[in-house]
Specification:
The complex is a heterodimer of chains A (603) and B (200).
Chain A lengths: L2 E5 H11 L4 E4 L7 H9 L4 E4 L3 H13 L4 E6 H6 L1 H10 L5 E7 L13 H7 L3 E2 L4 H18 L3 E6 H4 L1 E6 L17 H4 L3 H24 L4 E3 L2 E9 H10 L3 E6 L1 E3 L3 H10 L2 E5 L5 H8 L19 H9 L28 H11 L2 E3 L24 H13 L7 E6 H7 L1 H9 L5 E5 L29 H8 L3 E5 L4 H13 L4 E5 L21 E3 L18 E9 L5 E8 L9 H5 L5 E3 L3
Parallel strand pairs in A: 2-3, 2-4, 4-5, 5-7, 6-7, 10-11, 10-13, 14-15, 15-16, 16-18, 17-18
Antiparallel strand pairs in A: 1-8, 6-12, 9-11, 19-22, 20-21
Chain B lengths: L9 E9 L4 H14 L3 E6 L9 E9 L12 E6 L2 H5 L5 E10 L6 H4 L9 H9 L3 E4 L1 H7 L6 H10 L7 H11 L5 H14 L1
Parallel strand pairs in B: 1-4, 4-5, 5-6
Antiparallel strand pairs in B: 1-3, 2-3
Helix pairs in contact in B: 1-6, 1-7, 5-6, 6-8, 7-8
Classes of the chains: A alpha/beta (603), B alpha/beta (200).
Bound molecules: thiamine diphosphate (TPP) and iron/sulfur cluster (2 copies).
Chain lengths: 603, 200
């Protein structure tokens, strides 16, 4: 069989394709985004779409599943919070065509707003969850999920996480097999799909019966595997934690669970008989531990030594379990002493001048999630709250209601284009309806920047690059009843400050839309074309070393210490330097410099 | 019920650099080479916000049977680093007998740009103190520039690194390069590979 090195995400896409999936819907989110991108670029048999948010993705895929088509929805862990409403009830209606929801966790919060453990959703919704540990299992489990879904009439959760989704390992490729499920909709099935109380009570019972059947299935599930080696210690584990434990303690015995919900009670009982002591190695919550303890077992170790936050690693597993016997590697250099390298807004990014303007205005900025969240970092420090996608608009409104006239002129909500379409429209409607007076700024850079450039309803293109309708934010604002709508050029700091100040001070809802400010990495929008000069340089005759331009944190600008003076005799402690390879000529620093020391460069 | 397979010898390569330096291509070349050579390969990288100039690391492992995609802290056999600060950051990860290849390039992080932190001095010396002759500094940028394209610095580094694996023939590396790169880039990168190979 042909073997290929594949990323976990690509393997999930492959598994879905081999399983005969027809419809896939997703909203991007690290570390899950590559799955749908891979489907769109590699597998023409699957129809892919970027949904505006995860709730819509689950609804789209559920509707497709109801016709008999195999379908899937894909999201990061927090996406399932957004999609929880349809998800929790599709768990009752069940499906016709196989339906898988991929949920990608992010232990250690490499790129997320929290660190929740999605296994809890499986127990909460009473649906099965599979957890692969490498790319081969990603493919195999994704395929199996559809069989399980159809056999038990249930949505199936596939849980990945950063180290599974973004790790590559060899995968044996198979062929696509079309589903044999007859297609079509049958109105007579309404009682199964209309969740009104009389029907819900029937389905409620079904859910419990289904759970019992799934428990029996878990006992035979071929990826719940016992490996009996040294019987002194047996480890119960799943996913990538299993691999870490194997790496650290290959000699021990293992019960490796491919299905983490429901649990195979009999198998667990057998394992406890076969080994003397049981250790549970799992990342994040004591999920297996709580369940296994509730079954009445005593474990040797679990969360008493294994951390319940951040990610595990072979080292952490070894260190936690060996305790004092662990010998750490020699410390040659203290990494804490080295400067960190946090991500930064790109040179020329339109978010930079906008947040600089907000900082100068001294506004309290309710922010949202996207590249612009980076504006919270020093030295800009111009974003002061951020909890989840779309929250900025409602939070600013609530703050204004609480502050009354005190808040006028001081508060603003700032939200990216993708984020606005994800969850910002409804709260903006609320501002108008409830006679609020908050100001909302949409940072329209024509793409979903942070997660790697996915199309959305405001970009004018589908995931397969077909031209399509492009949302008009001004028309949305009007339709929701916003009367004061302004457009600004974020690169013009002075006029931005004037307009934003005016709108924040108004006792009515305002909407400000950044225009002509595409993401620097969005080639088709030719972002550099609007800049007149290819790059800028420092006129060292004039630079007084006041460090004002360093405030904007452009990656092209750096400080060069060294006593000296300007041509007209002003003493200075150093000058700044612009790296011409990095500078794109956006003129933001030019507007900040008070001494006209930043001048066009000559090629 | 099954018996556990023996782990056997696994080689651990740690790649580090800054977003945009082409570390991902380098690790893909390694993957292509060692997979074709018949090993099991696992590699893990954190993407997230690499595009915004953050640090990038890849854990790369090959052997007969590999479990964890992540290398155990302190178990790195080879450190292949594309930038000085990003090499010293991982010095504790390397085994005492580990081998180190560093691209002699400084890319300032924000705190250094702002004059609020010092860029570490004498990174090469810090490594030689512990690893003696096993430290190799390569002027990847300069070599690539002489070939007419700075972008090829990553392949220069791969070329230098290839010296550690005499059992792999040059053709195997070149094949991997050609599989992964567009045809118009083949000539440049093949040259970059050989220049790199000579540089170590
Ligand atoms: C519920 C949820 N889904 C997905 C994500 C992942 N995510 C973070 S920011 C973002 C979109 C950012 O795009 P945009 O608002 O256009 O801002 P930009 O990054 O382009 O500045 C996404 C999808 C998330 N954090 N939460
Ligand atoms: S990717 Fe785009 S939105 Fe993100 S920092 Fe760069 S220019 Fe700005
Ligand atoms: S013009 Fe100034 S702010 Fe803009 S990219 Fe160049 S150095 Fe940075």
């Amino acid at each position: 069989m042909k073997k290929e090195l594949m990323q976990g995400n690509a393997a999930v896409a492959r598994g879905a394709w081999e399983a005969g999936v027809k419809i896939a819907a997703a909203y991007p989110g690290t570390p899950s985004s590559e799955i749908l991108q891979d489907i769109a670029s590699t597998y023409p048999e699957i129809y892919p779409e970027w949904a505006p948010n995860e709730k819509v993705a689950v609804e789209v895929a559920s509707g497709a599943a109801l016709t008999g088509a195999r379908s899937m929805a894909i999201m990061k862990h927090v996406g399932l919070n957004v999609a929880a409403d349809p998800f929790m009830t599709v768990a009752y209606t069940g499906v016709k065509g196989g339906f898988m929801i991929v949920v990608a966790d992010d232990p250690n919060v490499h790129s997320s707003q929290n660190e929740q453990d999605s296994r809890n959703w499986a127990r909460f919704a009473k649906v099965p969850m599979l957890e692969p540990s490498d790319a081969q299992e990603c493919k195999d489990f994704a395929k199996l999920a559809f069989d399980i879904s159809e056999k038990f009439d249930t949505p199936v959760l596939l849980r990945t996480e950063t180290r599974v989704a973004h790790s590559d390992s060899p995968v044996a490729l198979g062929e696509r097999k079309e589903s044999t499920m007859p297609m079509g909709l049958d109105p007579k099935e309404a009682p199964k799909y209309v969740m009104v109380p009389v029907n819900v009570r029937v389905r409620r019972k079904f859910v419990e019966e289904r759970m019992r059947k799934l428990e029996a299935y878990a006992e035979k599930f071929k990826y719940n595997v016992m490996e009996i080696n040294d019987t002194k210690i047996g480890v119960i584990s799943s996913g990538v934690s299993y691999l870490y434990a194997k790496e650290a303690f290959p000699e021990w015995s293992y019960l490796k669970l491919g299905m983490v919900w429901p649990l195979p009670k009999k198998m667990i009982a057998t394992f406890f008989k076969k080994v003397k002591k049981v250790i549970i190695v799992e990342e994040l919550d004591p999920f297996l531990e709580t369940e296994i303890k509730a079954m009445g077992y005593k474990i040797f170790h679990g969360k008493d030594v294994i951390p319940n936050m951040y990610e595990l690693s072979p080292e952490i597993v070894e260190r936690s379990l060996k305790g004092k016997a662990y010998k750490p590697p020699k410390i040659r250099v203290k990494p804490e002493d080295l400067p960190r390298r946090p991500p930064n807004l790109c040179a020329g990014c339109s978010h930079r001048p906008l947040f600089y303007a907000l900082k100068k205005l001294g506004a309290f900025v309710f922010g949202d999630i996207g590249c612009y969240t980076l504006a919270t970092a020093p030295p800009l420090q111009a974003l002061h709250a951020c909890i989840c996608m779309g929250a900025s608009v409602g939070m600013a409104h609530g703050a204004m209601k609480a502050l009354g006239s005190e808040g006028l002129g001081k508060v603003v909500a700032v939200i990216g284009d993708s984020t606005f379409l994800h969850g910002g429209v409804t709260p903006l409607m609320n501002v108008v309806y409830n006679k609020g007076n908050s100001t909302t700024i949409i940072l329209d850079n024509r793409i979903t920047g942070m997660t790697g450039h996915q199309e959305h309803a405001g970009t004018g293109f589908t995931i397969r690059q077909e031209p399509t309708n492009m949302v008009d934010y001004e028309e949305i604002g009007k339709a929701l009843g916003v009367k004061s709508i302004r457009k600004i050029d974020p690169y013009d700091i002075k006029s931005c400050m004037e307009i934003i100040k005016e709108e924040m001070g108004k006792n009515e809802p305002s909407l400000i839309i950044c225009k002509d400010s595409p993401c620097m990495l969005l080639r088709r929008a030719k972002p550099l074309e609007k800049f007149k000069t290819p790059f800028y340089v420092i006129d060292t005759d004039k630079c007084r070393g006041c460090r004002m331009c360093l405030e904007i944190n452009c990656p092209a600008i750096s400080w060069r210490a060294g006593d000296g003076e300007t041509k007209d005799g002003h003493k200075r402690k150093g000058t700044v330097y612009i790296n011409r390879d990095q500078c794109v000529g956006c003129e933001v620093c030019v507007q900040v410099c008070k001494f006209e020391a930043i001048v066009p460069g000559q090629k | 019920m099954k018996k556990t397979k023996q782990n056997g010898k696994v080689t651990n390569i740690f790649l580090s650099g800054v977003g945009g330096q082409g570390t991902i291509l380098a690790s893909n070349i390694l993957a292509e080479v060692f997979l074709k050579a018949g090993y099991e390969v696992k590699k893990a990288e954190v993407h997230g916000m690499a595009q915004r100039g953050g640090d990038v690391t890849t854990h790369f492992r090959f052997g007969k049977k590999v479990y964890s995609p992540i290398i155990k802290y302190g178990d790195v056999d080879f450190l292949l680093s594309f930038e000085l600060l990003e090499s010293i950051r991982y010095i504790n990860w390397v085994k005492p007998e580990g081998k180190i290849v560093i691209n002699n390039q400084e890319i300032f992080p924000p705190a250094v740009n702002l004059g609020m932190a010092q860029y570490p001095k004498d990174v090469g010396k810090a490594f030689t103190k512990y690893f003696k002759n096993n430290v190799h500094m390569i002027n990847g940028q300069e070599i690539a520039k002489n070939l007419g394209n700075m972008q090829a610095a990553n392949v220069v580094l791969v070329g230098a690194f290839s010296n550690f694996f005499p059992e792999i023939k040059d053709e195997q590396w070149i094949d991997a390069l050609k599989t992964l790169l567009a045809p118009k880039l083949h000539d440049l990168n093949v040259k970059a590979f050989y220049e790199g190979k000579k540089a170590l």
